Amino acid sequence: MVSGIFNPFEELKTKSILETLSLIPRSIAFVFRASPFYFLVSNTSGFIRAGIGALLLWLGKVVIDRVIAVFGSEIDWMFVLLPMIAIVVVRVIRTGISSSSNFVSFMVMQKVDVKSQSLLLNKAADLDLAYYESPHYYDRLYQARSNIHYIQSASLSLIGLVSETFMLIAMFGLLSVLHPMAFLLLFATISPRIFIEGYTARRRFDLDMELTRNNRITYYFQSLLLERENVKEIKIFGLASYFVEKFFKYRDLLIKAYLRLSIHFLKVELVFDVLSMSGLCLVWLYAVYRASTGEITVGDLYMVFGAAQTSKDSIEAWFGQGGSVFENSLYLTRFFELVDLDPRTVDGALNRSMASPRALLPARLEQGIELKNVSFRYPGTDEFVLKDISFFIPASARLAIVGENGAGKTTLVKLLTRFYDPIDGSVCLDGKDYREYELDELRRGITVIFQDFAHYHFSVADNIGVGYVDLINDRTRIEQSAKNGGAHDMAMKLPNQYDTMLGRTYEEGVDLSGGEWQNVAISRAFMSDAQLFILDEPTAALDAFKESEVFDRFAYLTEGRTVVLVSHRFSTVRMADLICVIEDGRVIEYGSHEELVKLNGKYRRMYDAQAERYH
Ligand code: ADP
What we know:
This protein has helices spanning 17-21, 23-34, 36-69, 77-126, 135-146, 149-175, 180-190, 193-210, 212-226, 228-236, 240-292, 298-340, 409-416, 439-444, 460-465, 475-485, 488-493, 514-526, 544-557, 570-573, 593-599, 602-613; strands spanning 368-376, 386-394, 398-402, 424-429, 432-433, 446-449, 532-536, 562-566, 578-583, 586-591. By secondary structure, it is α/β, with parallel strands linked by helices. It has a six-stranded mixed beta sheet, sandwiched between helices. Strands 2-1-4-5 form a four-stranded antiparallel beta sheet, with helices on one face. Strand 4 (424-429) and strand 5 form a beta hairpin. It is elongated. 33% of the residues are buried. Bound molecules: adenosine-5'-diphosphate. Adenosine-5'-diphosphate binds at residues 133, 378, 381, 385, 403, 405-411.
């Protein structure tokens, strides 16, 4: 668990080497738990393959030694052929293991992917809206999502590291025939690689983190060009080549940055290669010398040559795998940081720990909802968006909130739906602070039709049914909600009526007009039994007649429930029982339409200005 408050506006620091390495046992445990059987199988096959590598070299030596032993005399075929047959059999076994190890690795990767995706998706769903307000959050999510596959690579490099270790032990045994120090000499000339492995891993990681925003922007331009909703504008404004150019400009930055890094690595790598080659040459020279003095057989010479080359490759691969494990762990820090994030520690997150036992949400609102001296500013900002707001929404009343753009109306809706808690003051339902109720229960008591409601590419029935997901299969309720929300007639005209797919994800998908989508969203709200209905300018896509018709129907159907409406249409606003005028985060007027007109203030001016346009 992360301690302290997480501030999404703060840059994340790269973890230290120790912190990164401490993730290795956790990654092993993660992979093991995701797929114990395949994890063990892949390690066992690594062990066997290492043994086979050594065995083949030894068998080669036996063949050569036996050929030399029978040189000049009559050949005993069984004597020579036996180790050759053994070589063929062992090679067949190795091929079998190699092919099946691809399947085993694939299975490990799939299982690890399922486990990590599920952790990440559940965490993202668990985080409050506060976390979603900052571009840094998207950087984090992007990093965590794109780093997910490092768990798989980490597991593969760990498996690789284990099998390379077995291979090293086997090669050490074979090279000892020449001299026990031969292997150590090779190891010593190759071991400085550990520094370049660690260094390159760190540099690549830092560059990737630095380029996260750049990456996101690159793919943003790509999505602008590929997604349907933008096609019209792109064509009419002739934006295609401008966006393509932008895409390549950002992509170019990436390529150049990686190119510079690769050239830098190449130079360092060359120096280390020369060092390790000189170690190998020394071992070979020594082997030739010992063979020439007759201290080792020609078969031994063959074996030692092979073993020295394989040892060099294996030691390099071993450091390479070690570097990969380190590099993968570095990337994994970003994944685990998100998975470990305690949602309560996010700046601006809801305080869910207050008052227990919880107050019981009334089945029917008795008194109403009251805002008491509410002040609020968004996390990471200093300016208060709502300032000392107090007003009352009586139960069963219809209240309209009006105000100019940026006055704070949507922010007020976010507090009424408890996406945020006020910084000062409180929002009370039937006299009790929102925080005293169970959050899920409170949210079930509220339904909202947002300005930017979702357009699900599901069937009409499911689009409405998600308004009360427990009843998504209740067709009668869905149809009733559609009748209430004004989507029924439209649905009946579609090719498969309520089963018609909406959107263009499916071939048979049908698209709706803005107004029709809005009716679907309104119908969705009618699925719920909520006591508080909030409409945040959901009727903007409807014409003025349609809007007042919707509102009339809404007023009738929500009889007995409490309605909060945010609208710019005064023809609709005037039908509300109460109107609350917000300006610059404060309530400046509050009362019925008649009262506010009489007051001759801001409301009157806005009302008259709009009325004039219709004359
Ligand atoms: P309205 O709905 O009345 O047009 P909003 O409630 O959307 O106004 O916005 C009120 C003020 O809060 C604006 O100045 C806006 O810039 C600011 N604001 C809105 N959302 C955020 C946010 N997520 N983070 C920071 N400031 C915000």
